[in-house]
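Friendly challenge for the regulars: who can give me the structure tokens for this chain first? No prize, just bragging rights.
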Amino acid sequence: MAAEAQELPAKGRLLIRNIGLLLSGDLDKPVLDSDCLLIEDGVIAGFNADDADSEIDAQGCAVMPGLIDSHTHPVFGDWTPRQNQLGWIEMNVNGAVTSFLSAGEVHLPGRPKDAEGVRALAMVAQRCFLNFRPAGAKVIAGAPVPEMDFDREFYASLKAAGIHRIGEIGLGTVAKGADAARVTGWCRELGIETIMHTGGPSIAGSHLVTADDVLMAQPDVVSHVNGGPTSIPHEAVRELCKHATGALEAVHNGNEKSAIVALEATLEAGRLADFLLGTDAPAGSGVQPNGMLRMITLLASFGGLPAEQAICCATGNITRKRKLDQGMLEAGRPADIVFLDRPDGSDGKNVLEAMAMGNIPGIAAVMIDGKMRTGRSRSTPPSARVPRI
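First reply, four minutes later:
Bragging rights claimed.
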């Protein structure tokens, strides 16, 4: 019988040297003053050129944490029934994404909606992706969608089963303010993270969720504040960015103009550390292997946000707001690392300047837990430089 081999971090000490830009993912200090990175047993050990068992010459490439897609809809394996497409997770790794957070396994054909079935689906999805990591990707799955007939004991049973996050409120029968507030209140008491759909219906059976609904419920994450895909009015987006207490997420499968409105309102409110990025893929617009890179570049070009800070919205901000280990270049964290450079032919002396003018980066290599998972990306334009291994 075939069995998945257990994923283990790389062993030994690895030194990455000759780094052109070291981008930390930490909004407090997005660029680090070092040109090397030391990894031991798949974990970041420090930023000094100490003795190592092996070396990688970055050859001037920038290095950043692997991107975390804050909003995805996996099902089982590396397949999506939404587009009947294989390999979407692996191709997103080529687009610099090393971790994926599920917002609900809602695209499963015949998805159960009774309490026992919903709980079972969440447990199976969570356990399957603990054992199955396409191209080394970390898929954090098991996000049950709330329904009206679920009581507090249902959510307590989720916590007892090891489920720590629910799927989007609004994709099931729970959608409006008072009903959603009841669910977020129970989950807050139990220590379960809540996220809430924002905007018009995304699929048959989902609902319009307004800013008033979100403000009444106050979820931990306001999912796709820019719509998924249909946006609420821009003034309502601004109100959420001022008054929602949870993190504010913008997605590729949303309204790009509303994403810029949300960024501007978030900056005005002094809340950039609350701003997260995702794709909301797979979705009606398909699978977007470069979706996270495009969102970062949108913020850095049309949004005018320094590119090194835009990267933090797809890495360290998600790490902190959604309580993950990965997503920052810091001693003690997993060595989920992306080598990148300006795309060949782009203006700008480095990748940050290329992004500021609207060009997505060229991904030169992707490492997860200290193991190289890709060379030069199959989904981005070629990077001007590549590391030498």
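The CA atoms of residues 207 and 322 lie 25 Å apart. DSSP finds eleven helices and 19 strands in the chain. Your move, everyone else.
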